[in-house]
Structures are given as C-alpha cells and as structure tokens.
Design a protein that fits this description.
By secondary structure, the chain is α+β, with helices and mostly antiparallel strands. The protein has 12 helices and 22 strands. The structure holds adenosine monophosphate and glycine.
Length: 424
C-alpha cells in the first residue's frame, strides 16, 4: 500500500514510524515532512494547506491511503477534497472536524447532549461579551472560537484582564478570524488528561491515556506552548474515571455527531479535566495530540493501518485495540526563547545515538536537512521518547536520552512526568 501523511511535526513523525512498522506499508510519502520523517519516508515539498497540489500528487502517485495529521487541513476540508477525487483518506470530513474547528459548536453540542463540560456562553458581539463579564465570577476563561495554534485561550483573574482579553480577541483580532466568535466559560480546577480515540462514525475505541505539559517552564510556569512533554499512561486516569467517561462522554460524543448528521471518522482527542465533580471535557481535537502521539503510538500493539482502514470502512467494532503494559515519557527539546523568539539553523549533534536502540525514539518537529547536516528549524525541535517498565523508569530513560543530543540553545523542562510522584 502507498501511504501519504499530511503534516510535518513530531506527531506526523510518530505516525510515520507506526506506519513504517505496518505490514501493509510499501511506500510512505509525507507532505511536507521534516528531516527525521525523511529518513523513513519520501518528503514532498507541498504545504498542508495546498489542497489542489496534494490531491494532484495523490492521484499521480496512486496513493492508496492519505492520513491527515494536522488540524488546519482537516478543518479546511482536505478529507472531502481527497474523497471527491476518489482517494481513501483517514480523518474527519469538514462537517465533523468542526468539533475542533469551532469551540462554540463543541460547547453547544455538549450542552445539547448532556456531556459534562464547564458552564459557558457564546458571543458574536464584543459588546455583549463585555456586558456579560459584569455578571461572572473570577477567574474566568476566554476562548477564541476558531483554530489559534493552541493559543486562543486566556485565563483571566480580574475584570480588567477579562475586558482586555475580549478586546484583543474580538476587536483587535489577536487570533485573526478565529476571534469572530468567542466562548466565555467557567474556570475549572483539576488535573488534565488527554485521551485519544479511534472512531469509525459509530464505534469508538479509546487509546491509553496521556498527560501533556503545556507551559514553557518547570513547575507549570511561563507561557503556554504547543506542549513541552508528555507521559503515558496517566496514573490519575483510574478505572473509575475511565468508566465514568465511557458512560458520559465518549460514546455520547460519537452518537451526538452522528445524530447531527456529522458522522465522525478519524481521531477524537478528548482533553479532560478531572474536577471534584467528576471528569469534564475541556476541549475536543479532531486529530492526534502533539506530543501525545509521541508517547501513545509507541505503546500501541496494533497495526496502525489496519485500525485506520477499519475506521474508514466502519468496521472498528472488529478491532481489539491493545497497548503494551509499559510506560512512555517524551521530553521536548526546544530552542531557548520558545514560544516567543528563538534562533534557527543550529547544527544538531548526536541523532545517530538513537539508531538501533530499542525503546528509544527521537521524533523530529522543527528540523531541516542542510549540507552541513540536520539543523534546528523551529521552536520545538525534537521529542525524545523512551519506554520503560513503568513511568519512573521511562522518565529516567527519556532524560538519559536527552543528553545524547546537543545543539546551541537547547532547552527542555526538567520536570516532565514529575506529577507521577503525586500519584503514590
Ligand atoms: P484548550 O485549547 O481549550 O485545551 O485550552 C488550553 C488550556 O487552557 C487547557 O489545556 C487548560 O489548561 C486551560 N483551560 C481551558 N479551558 C479551561 C477551563 N474552563 N478551566 C481551566 N482551565 C482551562
Ligand atoms: N498536546 C495538545 C494538542 O495537541 O493539542
């Protein structure tokens, strides 16, 4: 089978590694890919939003399966365009990807179908949003409706901050068109867990749990980032939590989308908050998490292409989704200064140390191949993942492996997975 992956970050590298392991994969392309993906797949210099070129490439090269890794092309309708050209594609169509593409849509869906989430109101007008702020308790959470690279969420402690937030989202359009509408919602407290799932329109199979670390600095300080590291499984995701979510969240979401005439096929990522009142949905994403994929996929026992094909064919009920009884930790190596400003083009040394070492992965995010070698090309540069018999061992292994890599301005958090110490 010829497979094309759309995207070029650490998540797509993790997907590519899983696809490479599949018995069904004869040839892998990735658009646009990166230097790491280029070691196992043929990178194609087409951007993820260049739909016409992607479709033309898939037709010319007789691609059997396209896997869309990123949110923007999913929300923009790449799956629909591929399907219109007769190309089998893994991922939700545009009318289902709205689950991630519009926070106002997803909040209304949860309210309509009784899925637990924070209390909220949606606003199309800044004037009404500002008036509403006079009636709320603080802290309060402001969210731009659309995609904003994970940055469209503001947690405001005071009325002044919240007023300034509404202005920057809706009037100054800090997050562009994503801020045409906004959600104002109750602040929830608790531990966050990410649960990814495969969905075929009616059946849902959840994967093992994970936890991300979104802030740039140790102790969850500093600015929000795309994710500085993950561990899997989450010891806080107990069998009781799982049972609650199975009853009140997962299948209900899939059924709600089907009932709305928006059957969801692909990955649903449930961002959960474990509150004192029980688990609630923070957000939905319509794709694998990044860097959640980097700890979840290395633990998956199934052939990924078989599972993805079952999602497309509506036969996911016949798949027995299984994960290793071990743990994984991913530590992101970033460029100092991320997520604000940082240097690019620094030579990366030590990548060869990962070769032949079972249980260790170096997933590339922002890297580029040049004549001198592989250089940094983004804020998040690499995701170093290690497996271990348990979380402690995985964490130790991952931090050991981060030492194998050197580049100028290398920066990482030193407390990825530290939360596991609280679980005992
Ligand atoms: P989102 O993009 O919706 O996942 O939000 C980004 C981050 O903001 C989440 O991972 C949480 O840490 C935080 N957040 C979002 N909504 C809330 C909320 N209602 N209460 C507390 N924190 C929130
Ligand atoms: N790690 C969070 C996300 O992928 O949105």
């Amino acid at each position: 089978m010829k497979v094309m992956i759309v995207g070029g970050g650490g998540r797509e590298h993790a997907i590519a590694v899983s696809v490479k392991k599949s018995a069904g994969a004869d040839k892998i392309y990735c658009a646009p890919g990166n230097a790491g993906i280029g070691q196992i797949a043929e990178c194609v210099p087409i951007g993820a939003m260049e739909f016409d070129k992607l479709v033309a490439f898939a037709e010319e090269n007789e691609i059997d399966l396209v896997i869309v890794g990123m949110d923007d092309p999913l929300v923009g309708g790449l799956v629909d365009e591929m399907e219109a050209a007769g190309i089998r594609t893994f991922g939700p169509r545009k009318n289902a990807a709205i689950l991630e593409g519009s926070k106002a849509f997803s909040k209304d869906l949860m309210k309509k179908y009784g899925i637990p989430t924070a209390a909220y109101e949606n606003f199309d007008s800044a004037k009404e949003a500002l008036a509403y702020l006079d009636t709320v308790k603080f802290p309060i959470v402001l969210k731009a409706d659309g995609l904003a690279l994970g940055k469209g969420v503001l947690i405001c402690n005071t009325l002044e901050e919240a007023r300034a937030g509404v202005k920057s989202i809706m009037l100054d359009k800090q997050f562009g068109a994503a801020g045409t509408r906004m959600v104002i919602e109750e602040f929830m407290q608790g531990r966050e867990v990410s649960v990814l799932s495969f969905v075929d329109g009616k059946t849902i199979k959840t994967m093992t749990s994970a936890q991300d670390h979104k802030r740039a600095k140790d102790g969850d300080q500093g600015l929000n980032t795309g994710g500085m590291g993950t561990f899997s499984p989450s010891p806080f995701y107990t069998p009781e939590v799982d049972a609650f979510c199975k009853e009140h969240i997962y299948q209900k979401t899939v059924d709600a989308m089907a009932a709305e005439g928006r059957p969801f096929k692909g990955i649903i990522f449930f961002g959960l908050m474990l509150t004192e009142e029980g688990p609630k949905v923070l957000e939905y994403n319509a794709r694998f998490g990044d860097p959640e994929a980097q700890v979840v996929l290395p633990r998956m026992k199934n052939d990924i292409l078989e599972v993805m094909e079952a999602c497309i064919d509506g036969t996911l009920d016949q798949i027995d989704l299984q994960f290793e009884d071990n743990a994984a930790v991913c530590v992101v190596l970033a460029s100092e200064g991320y997520p604000v400003s940082y240097e690019k083009g620094c030579l990366i040394r030590g990548l060869e140390q990962f070769e032949g070492k079972e249980g260790y992965y170096c997933f590339h995010a922002g890297t580029k191949r040049t004549e001198e070698g592989i250089v940094t090309n983004g804020g998040r540069v690499l995701g170093v993942t290690a497996l271990g018999a348990d979380l402690r061992q995985a964490r130790k292994n991952a931090y050991t492996a981060t030492e194998w890599i050197q580049f100028n301005n290398k920066y990482m958090r030193s407390d990825i997975g530290k939360a596991i110490d609280d679980a005992q």
